[in-house]
Amino acid sequence: MDVSDFKTLFGDSIRTWLDWDALDDENARVEDLVLSSREDIGTLYTVWHVDPEGNPGEWSHPRHRPLTIAQAAGTSWPEDRQAKLDGIREELADDDEPVVLTLPVYRADDNLVVLDSNHRIVGAYRAEAELRVLLVVLAGPASSLILPGLAQVENDRADRI
Questions:
Q1: CA–CA dist 19, 94 (Å, integer)
Q2: Cα-based distances in Å from 87 to 69, 71, 80, 143
Q3: Gap between the Cα atoms of 81 and 116, Å rounded
């Protein structure tokens, strides 16, 4: 799969702002990665941010930080997002079969950001369902001009080390 195929497959569903014109086969590649460890899945970054008090935030605010899947699963959200997450959690909580998801992800250096299906993966994580996740990874430049909010992801990860 190349960058054009990735865009064909996921481009219409990704609502996260991504500068598609800045990505091509010269500076980006597509990889796949399978995760089944809850710990590994929990470290993926969402595109959701919170302010210093833990309220929903914006990627464009320098003091707002991005959340990992694990952090987002433990956050209280406004009613509409909370209801959607609760619905997914309830749907999957009693399922005896593993939940299999395919997620488009952007990789910059060692940072993995889920570009779409954040509600589904966070809801499944909350359900404590057995997860098997195929990441279709668009590995590209570490630039906030391509994926806004990437600087906050890099800073958050550096703060944890």
A1: 39
A2: 17, 19, 11, 35
A3: 15
Question: How is residue 24 written in tokens?
Answer: 């091509």
Per-residue pLDDT reduced to its tens digit, 1-60: 999 999 999 999 998 889 999 999 999 999 999 999 999 999 999 999 999 998 888 888
Find how far residue 96's CA is from the centre of its chain. Answer: 25
SS3 assignment, position 118: helix
pTM for this predicted structure: 0.92
- Is residue 67 classed as helix, strand or coil in its secondary structure? strand
| Neighbour order of strands in the sheet with 45-50 | 29-35, 131-139, 99-108, 111-114, 45-50, 65-68
3-state secondary structure of 150: helix
Q: How far is CA 148 from CA 10, 36, 83, 106, 109, in A?
A: 18, 28, 27, 12, 15
Burial of 52: CB neighbours in 10 Å, binned 0-12, 13-18, 19+: exposed
